[in-house]
Every structure is written in C-alpha cells, then in structure tokens.
Amino acid sequence: MGPTSKASGHVADFLNKRGFGWLMEVQETSDEEYQKPLLEELDVDLTDIYYKIRCVLFPFPFLGFKKKIIRDNPDFWGPLLVVLIFSAFSLYGQLQVISWIITVWIIGSLVIFLLARVLGGEVNYSTCLGIIGYSLLPLAVTATVIPVVRFSRYLTLAVEVLGVIWASYSAGSLLVDEDLSKKRLLLFYPTFLLYIYFLSLYTGA
C-alpha cells in the first residue's frame, strides 16, 4: 500500500469518526446505464405512440382499439410529434407558425383541462395535453387532402368540416368519462372550437 492509499485511509477514518464518511463514498455506475438507447433515456416508446395514433385515426368503438390507453397512460413526445407535423403543414414559409401552434396546443389543453375539472371530470393536465395533441392527426390528414380538392370550394369546405368533426370526436370521446357523460356537449363544444382555430392556422382564414 503506497503513501497515497495510507493518506486516503487516514482521511476516511477521520471523516467516519465524525459522521462525514459519506464524503468519501464513490457511487458505482454500471456500463449498462451508459449503454441505454437514446429513445429509452428519453422515455420514448414508438410502439405505444404508433398504437395511440391508430386509436385517434380510427376512434370508432367497433374497431376494437383500446382508446383509454391515451387517457390512462399519457405521454408527451407522441402529441408533440403530431403537433410538429401539423405545424409543418401550416408553415407557408413562416417559421413563427410552429411556435404559435405549440402555444395554442399548450394553452388550449389547459383551458379544456380546467373546464373538464369544473364540470366534475377526473382528468389531469398531462392527459388533456396528450389527447388534444394526438387528436390533431385528423387535421394533419385533412391538410394533405385540401390541396388535392382545392379546385372545388364546396368540396374543400366539406373536407375541412369533416376534419374538424373527426378531430373533435376523437378528442371528445377520450376526454368524456362516466362523470361527464351527461355534460358531454359542454366539453365537446369548446373542443370543437379549438380544432376550428387550429384549422384556421393552416388555411389562413
């Protein structure tokens, strides 16, 4: 044992006697902690996100998707991805649109959350954030169809209305639980208005 080891031992004994031995403790870290994939580090489950996307795009009960997974197991990265995709369709050469859509998503989800709580619903903000974000997918699909049917004003209007109803139904069916079953219209209406506003950011109306 060299002089350095002896000195370290004396210091350790000195600190232990006075209750400061924890200062000499070295936290052991395994190599496995440094070898985790980036997605795992960020808590991103692509399979879970893909399933939730299908639940929103196909919200009808007879299809058999367990839509409650979006409500019971909310996440952040999936809704953020959907919001960014919708923002990309809404750019029109203006990058500030992205930040504004994200702001509307965050604040709009907060308003829906507060309204749901006032109405007596058992829902938290992260759940509303996830549901509102994921339910932008129908509007993203609508945004890809509108340029194709733009030759007809009435057809374009029909696609826009269908997209808003689709998004509102997806979000509303997830937000409304048993506690809000008799007050669903009070929650559906502001959700419908929120998606109309989202669509207006795309169309520029």
From TrEMBL:
It is a multi-pass membrane protein. It comes from Trichoplax adhaerens (Trichoplax reptans). It is found in: Golgi apparatus membrane; Golgi apparatus, cis-Golgi network membrane. Keywords: Golgi apparatus, Membrane, Transmembrane, Transmembrane helix. Pfam families: Yip1. GO terms for cellular component: Golgi membrane; trans-Golgi network. This is Protein YIPF. The lineage of its organism: Eukaryota, Metazoa, Placozoa, Uniplacotomia, Trichoplacea. The keyword Transmembrane helix applies. Involved in the maintenance of the Golgi structure. The chain crosses the membrane at residues 76-92, 98-116, 128-148, 154-176, 185-203. It comes from the Eukaryota. GO terms for biological process: endoplasmic reticulum to Golgi vesicle-mediated transport; vesicle fusion with Golgi apparatus. InterPro entries: Yip1/4-like, Yip1_dom. Belongs to the YIP1 family. Residues 67-200 form the Yip1 domain.
